[in-house]
């Protein structure tokens, strides 16, 4: 396996692009309202990355992907393609952005609730966020990548939700998707973490079955097989000498940027 360890100068670039990625998700928040199309949101973010962050979308053109961001509503699990679809009151929406700046990638996503939604939808979003946060807390040199899946499994089981198995987190750096794969369910993929590794944790939690299907027409849009809703949060992380740094942390979050163990 080829897991890259980032040098101090690479870590500085990962911090820069991570901060820019966080700002995209902060900037777009007031625009996520009923009536806006996901294409309008995509255009605003694409423009912002280029003009305000001196960066670009890593999604656009990635394996032929047609847009700058992924916007996934309700039963869409991930890779929702921005379109003329308008957001509606009560929708739960994931916006996932991957920014490329100075040769390095930052990848993060969060849920936005359009107005008010059902208690079940709220719990689902909270569960995905808590699963990600609890998993981040396990990250330090010497810990095992499998601990991440174990913790997420505990959080999802407790809420009686399911975990998507078809998509996982990933190493990140000069490459968008680097090794290792980060599984979000209980597993035996034993990899010991080392200082300088960067990877994402991005659990997708389903209200019903874990099963997903990919839209056959567009080749991208992933929905739950049972049409029940799905929620996801994602951060890009750095393994530090004694813990973890959340490179894509936003101002709206009640979570530490740096955890030292
Ligand atoms: N951002 C996604 C991830 O978390 C990947 C999106 S690839 C795209 O890994 F082509 F769909 F944009
Ligand atoms: Co990712
Ligand atoms: Co992403």
Write up what this structure looks like.
The chain is of the alpha+beta class and 261 residues long. It has one domain (8-260): Creatine Amidinohydrolase (Alpha-Beta Complex), CATH 3.90.230.10. It has four helices and 16 strands. The chain has helices spanning 8-28, 38-51, 119-136, 145-159; strands spanning 56-57, 70-73, 76-78, 92-101, 104-113, 162-163, 169-171, 178-182, 198-201, 204-206, 212-214, 222-224, 230-232, 235-239, 243-246, 258-260. The strands form five sheets. Strands 1, 2, 4 and 5 form a four-stranded antiparallel sheet that branches. Strands 9-14-15-16 form a four-stranded antiparallel sheet. It is globular, with a radius of gyration of 17 Å. The protein binds 2-amino-4-trifluoromethylsulfanyl-butyric acid (MF3) and cobalt (II) ion (2 copies).
């Amino acid at each position: 396996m080829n897991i890259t360890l980032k040098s101090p100068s690479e870590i500085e670039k990962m911090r820069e692009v991570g901060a820019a990625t966080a700002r995209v998700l902060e900037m777009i928040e007031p625009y996520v309202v009923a009536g806006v199309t996901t294409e309008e949101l995509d255009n605003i973010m694409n423009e912002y990355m280029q003009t305000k962050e001196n960066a670009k979308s890593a999604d656009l053109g990635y394996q032929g992907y047609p847009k700058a961001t992924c916007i996934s509503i309700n039963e869409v699990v991930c890779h929702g393609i921005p379109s003329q679809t308008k957001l509606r009151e009560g929708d739960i929406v994931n916006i996932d952005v991957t920014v490329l700046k100075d040769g390095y990638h930052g990848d993060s996503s969060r849920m936005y609730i359009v107005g008010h939604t059902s208690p079940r939808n709220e719990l689902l979003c909270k569960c995905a966020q808590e699963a990600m946060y609890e998993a981040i807390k396990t990250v330090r040199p010497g810990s095992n990548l499998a601990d991440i899946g174990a913790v997420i499994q505990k959080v999802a089981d407790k809420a009686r939700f399911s975990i998507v198995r078809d998509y996982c987190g990933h190493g990140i750096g000069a490459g968008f998707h680097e090794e290792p794969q980060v599984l979000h369910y209980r597993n035996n993929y034993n990899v010991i973490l080392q200082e300088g590794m960067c990877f994402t944790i991005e659990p997708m939690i389903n209200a019903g079955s874990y099963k997903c299907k990919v839209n056959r027409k567009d080749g991208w849009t992933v929905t739950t097989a049972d049409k029940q809703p799905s929620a996801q949060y994602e951060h890009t992380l750095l393994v530090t000498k004694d813990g973890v740094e959340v490179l894509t942390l936003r101002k709206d979050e009640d979570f530490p940027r740096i955890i030292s163990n």
